[in-house]
Known about the structure:
Blueprint: H1 3-8, H2 12-34, H3 43-60, H4 69-88, H5 93-113, H6 119-126, H7 130-151, H8 173-192, H9 195-206, H10 211-218, H11 222-247
Helix pairs in contact: 2-3, 2-4, 3-4, 5-6, 5-7, 8-11, 9-11, 10-11
Amino acid sequence: MTLWQAFSSGDLAAREELLAEHISLVHHVSRQIHRRVSSDVELDELISAGTMGLIEALDRFDPTRGLAFSTFAVPRVRGAILDELRRIDHVPSSMRRRTRTLSTARESLRHELGREPMAEEVAGMLKLDLPALWKLEAEAEGTMRVALDGANSDDSEDIPHARATTAEDNNSVEDRITLDQETAILRETILRLSQQERTVLTLYYFEELKLHEIAAVLEVTESRVSQIRQKAIVKLRGELSSLRSLVA
């Protein structure tokens, strides 16, 4: 019996072995992304997020389809890491460090005591009095609340900008209005795209997958992915061109 067969039959040891066998994918993608982000972001944070993506990929993978697990897993690992980067982008680095300190202390005590630590024990390990610990815990809760608020906003992170300009770059009210109009039109057009078109644009422009990687995820040919992408872009450009001709 192969590892995949054992895993499919519910063998937890096989599951752990498969995770260990493919954890190098997480480290590779994490290092690749870490080189391109702020030095405030720790590699361990990316690896932790990527590992969750690997676990999700493992649980969803169907080995009978003939697709290599690495091909299936890498987009999910990368997606989990990018989700984490979007989450922590809303949280100051100093708050992330304090939250991480609290989490590490709790985990250490949990491992040492074999149970959930009491507040006095956590405070003692961190050399804090109880009011200071409660303040730290409140900050940690605030970190999660900010992250959730950011994730449930108006999805602006998934909508590309109409132009690479900012409010400071626009020297007139007319320019600002035009940019706002373009952004609104672009948003509405993207929402009218098919699910497949939106998925292709997201994977290509935001998760930076190659066409053949997207093809593997969607289980279509690379040329089909290229056609879907081009069709979506034509729709977006058409809407923006129509607006610009009206305000020109």
